[in-house]
Design goal:
Elements (H helix, E strand, L loop, with lengths): L1 E2 L2 E2 L5 E3 L8 H9 L5 E2 L3 E2 H5 L3 H5 L10 E6 L3 H12 L5 E6 L4 H4 L11 H14 L4 E8 L7 H10 L5 E7 L10 H8 L8 E4 L5 H11 L3 E4 L9 H11 L8 H18 L3 H7 L1 H4 L10 H9 L3 H15 L13
Parallel strand pairs: 3-11, 4-6, 5-6, 6-7, 7-8, 8-9, 9-10, 10-11
Antiparallel strand pairs: 1-2
């Protein structure tokens, strides 16, 4: 598939943009394990227009990221155009528009998935962003707002007409949030519509190589996007690639192996952040996902989620190794929620 001048072989794997998740250290780990395309955390257009440094920090890119996109969101066309111009200054390989975030704090202002309720506005916004910058523009969205309102086909055609170069589709409605099962059949209908010429990237419920292959076989999508399944499991990209090539599963890692991976992510995060406590706090969402299914693990997990210093975290990790080091984890049954 192709986005602008970027040529991606085979069925590339994209790391989904996720707030407070896809920052530098996590992107590094996912790239190390085989992710082909990175996204930043999504960035508020209004914050960029107001030149808020904390928001601009999210757009700092690194050579290991490439190819990489900066994702922006907002409800005001003028602000989105200006935000895209600011984002372009950070030299991403492409800029992505978020038309799919279901979070209340986003949709209540008319941004994210709320744009699915006004497709002409969505199309106009996309067209004006495309026209305002030289960098390729892509988009990410959902099937629709509710079960009874899934205008994804019309949305895709409108976005293509607006100049969007690739579209990622999460197979749920906004109403579903992250519950239920992703509807890949509807993603497949979009992909296989002869009028759709832009690449379609499928997203939703990918937590194993078998699922990844089944979704590709079912829909013929050009690429896969992995999000929540990789939190606490960045090697999922390696597992998926291996299965797509061999139709064989790699063995699940032991606790001792996982802890070495976690330690690397933590070290990178602390090097990137200038405050130890904030670097630890940022890791908590990952800590919560790294050890599914361990028996009698609740107390150690609570300690890990409450730790505020590097020394505390390492002490707890050593205790986990001592108790569970040879235990083989089963991430294929871990919850995506």
């Amino acid at each position: 598939m192709k986005i602008g001048n970027i040529e991606l072989a085979g069925t590339p794997l994209f790391l989904a943009p996720m707030e407070d998740v896809t920052y530098k250290s996590f992107r590094w780990m996912c790239k190390k394990f085989g992710a082909d395309v990175m996204y930043t955390e999504f960035v508020s257009s209004e914050a960029l227009v107001r030149d808020i440094e904390k928001t601009k920090r999210k757009m700092h890119l690194f050579e290991f990221d490439r190819p990489v996109a900066i994702q922006i969101y907002g409800h005001n066309i003028d602000s989105m155009v200006r935000a895209a111009q600011v984002a372009e200054e950070f030299s991403p390989d492409f800029i992505d528009i978020n038309f799919g975030c279901p979070m209340k704090k986003i949709v209540r202002h008319g941004a994210g998935a709320a744009m699915l309720k006004d497709l002409p506005l969505m199309q106009e916004m996309a067209a004006k962003v495309v026209k305002a910058i030289k960098t390729p523009v892509t988009a990410k969205t959902r099937l629709g707002w509710t079960e009874g309102n899934k205008p994804i086909m019309e949305a895709a055609l409108r976005l293509q007409d607006a100049g969007i170069e690739a579209l990622a589709i999460h197979g749920r409605t906004r109403e579903q949030l992250y519950t239920g099962v992703a509807d890949w059949a509807l993603i497949g209908e979009v992909k296989n519509n002869p009028a759709i010429q832009m690449p379609i990237i499928g997203n939703g419920d990918i937590n194993s190589g078998e699922k990844a292959k089944a979704f590709i076989d079912q829909t013929g999508v050009d690429a896969l996007m992995i999000g929540r399944g990789a939190i606490g499991r960045p090697w999922l990209f390696r597992e998926v690639k291996h299965y797509l090539q061999t139709e064989e599963n790699l063995p699940q890692p032991t606790v001792a192996e996982v802890i070495e991976i976690l330690k690397e992510q933590l070290r990178l995060n602390l090097e990137w952040r200038d405050n130890e406590r904030s670097g630890i706090l940022m890791m908590r969402r990952h800590f919560a996902k790294y050890f599914p299914g361990l028996p009698n693990f609740r107390e150690l997990k609570i300690q890990l989620l409450r730790a505020e210093t590097n020394d505390e975290v390492h002490r707890i990790l050593e205790e986990i190794v001592e108790q569970f080091g040879v235990f083989q984890l089963d991430f294929t049954n871990a919850s995506l929620r």
